[in-house]
Amino acid sequence: MSDLENSMAAIIDVFHKYSGKEGDKHKLKKSELKDLINNELASFLGIWDPALQMSDLENSMAAIIDVFHKYSGKEGDKHKLKKSELKDLINNELASFLGQIKDQATMDSLMESLDTDADSECDFQEFMTFIAMVTIGCHEFFEHHEDE
Ligand SMILES: [Ca+2]
User: Fold this and answer.
1) How far, in Å, is the centroid of ligand 1 from the Cα of 118?
2) Which sequence spans correspond to the domains of the chain?
3) What is the pTM of this model?
4) Which PROSITE patterns does the record associate with it (predicted)?
5) Which pLDDT score, from 0 to 100, does residue 145 have?
6) How many angstroms does the Cα of residue 57 sit away from the middle of ligand 1?
7) Could you give the maximum distance between any two Cα atoms of the chain, in Å?
8) What distance in angstroms lies between residue 7's CA and the mean position of ligand 1's atoms?
9) pLDDT at site 50
């Protein structure tokens, strides 16, 4: 798995580490969410303690941001992924989760569905919607397999 895929899997793991503590194992109750935020998002949410290392969750989020910029910075607008950059990102960094995208029609329709502001590029917000969709898909896949 790529760094990006490991990061997405780490986010799923953190969710389950806390959701599995009490009650419904697939949902975070308020006390679980509070523990997750205080333990795993302290650096990002400003409960900053210089002695504190970034958590796995924070490292994963930072890794996703890094991957976006690694590809968006290649050509044209440095803050947006054009179609060829998005294609390279998927084929290099999401091949285990999504497989390789080879044909142009698939790429065209994917970009069309992600490009909510219709500027023919994928900005960070549009990219995160995509990452969330793929992560949710993987989560459902793994959960389904655990139940078997
Ligand atoms: Ca766009």
Assistant:
1) 5
2) 3-147
3) 0.87
4) S100_CABP
5) 73
6) 27
7) 50
8) 24
9) 67
